[in-house]
């Protein structure tokens, strides 16, 4: 029973890590179907990394099942279930060579509404950081948000502020293109930009999103 408890604990850790890995990998692809397929594959890879074949004599360690069916419009939900045949020792006397052990890990990811507020004032140019700002912001957009689920917008400010990109669920190509052509000039009208951006975000209707 102690060995079964140990295997069950490791299996639970493996499916929990797999579910988290899958949810975090959703941002890698454009279509929701591809997001779920590739995120599920990432979850399976995490599962095997945490519960390798032959650990505590458990073999084979088959792929877990990945289920996205509980997802709703505002939230992605992934359930990953692993089942292994744990070997016995003394129980073999009674004809029990293995005992099936199962565990399920669940992770959720709420859709996001995000508005980027970007400083494009002259001080960025003078310090040689305008290009770095644009490059890092592009990476942030590409790696942090999920097209088809999240809504992203952008306000930039110098002497004046401007809504350069309105909320859209399709944003990676067009928004990163705008960031790549960012020009830093003018004063630093930050307060007006943040106030405007906040009001835009507050007025957005997206029930259930974060």
**How large is the radius of gyration?**
24 Å
Task: Give me the secondary-structure category.
Answer: alpha+beta
Strand content: 15-25%
Q: Give the rounded overall mean pLDDT.
A: 94
Helix-strand pattern: HHEEEEHHEEHH
Strand arrangement, major sheet: 1-2-3
Would you give an account of this structure?
The model has no long low-confidence stretch (mean pLDDT 94). With 210 residues, this protein is of the alpha+beta class. The protein is 40% helix and 24% strand. The two termini are 43 Å apart. The chain contains 6 helices and 6 strands; from the N terminus they run H-H-E-E-E-E-H-H-E-E-H-H. Strands 1-2-3 form a 3-stranded antiparallel beta sheet.
Which labels suit this protein?
210 residues, alpha+beta, 3-stranded antiparallel sheet, 3-stranded mixed sheet, 6 strands, elongated
Map the helices and strands.
Elements (H helix, E strand, L loop, with lengths): L1 H23 L7 H19 L14 E3 L7 E13 L10 E13 L2 E7 L2 H5 L3 H15 L6 E7 L3 E8 L3 H9 L9 H14 L7
Parallel strand pairs: 4-5
Antiparallel strand pairs: 1-2, 2-3, 5-6
Quick rundown:
This protein has 210 residues and is an alpha+beta fold. The protein has six helices and six strands, in the order ααββββααββαα. Helix 1 packs antiparallel against helix 2 and helix 4 packs antiparallel against helix 5.
């Amino acid at each position: 029973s102690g060995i079964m408890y140990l295997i069950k604990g490791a299996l639970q850790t493996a499916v929990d890590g797999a579910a988290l890995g899958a949810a975090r990998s959703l941002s890698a692809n454009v279509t929701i179907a591809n997001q779920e397929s590739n995120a599920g594959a990432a979850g399976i890879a995490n599962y095997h990394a945490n519960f390798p074949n032959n650990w505590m004599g458990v073999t084979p360690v088959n792929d877990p099942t990945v289920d996205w069916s509980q997802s709703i419009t505002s939230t992605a939900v992934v359930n990953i279930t692993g089942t292994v045949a744990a070997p016995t020792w003394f129980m073999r006397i009674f004809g029990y060579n293995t005992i099936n052990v199962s565990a399920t890990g669940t992770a959720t990811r709420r859709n996001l509404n995000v508005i980027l507020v970007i400083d494009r004032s002259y001080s960025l140019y003078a310090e040689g950081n305008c290009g770095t700002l644009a490059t890092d912001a592009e990476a942030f957009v590409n790696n942090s948000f999920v097209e088809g689920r999240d809504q992203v917008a952008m306000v930039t400010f110098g002497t004046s502020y401007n809504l350069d990109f309105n909320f859209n669920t399709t944003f990676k190509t067009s928004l990163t293109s705008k960031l790549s052509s960012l020009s830093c000039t003018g004063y630093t009208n930050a307060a007006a930009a943040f106030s405007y951006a906040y009001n835009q975000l507050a007025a957005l209707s997206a029930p259930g999103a974060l």
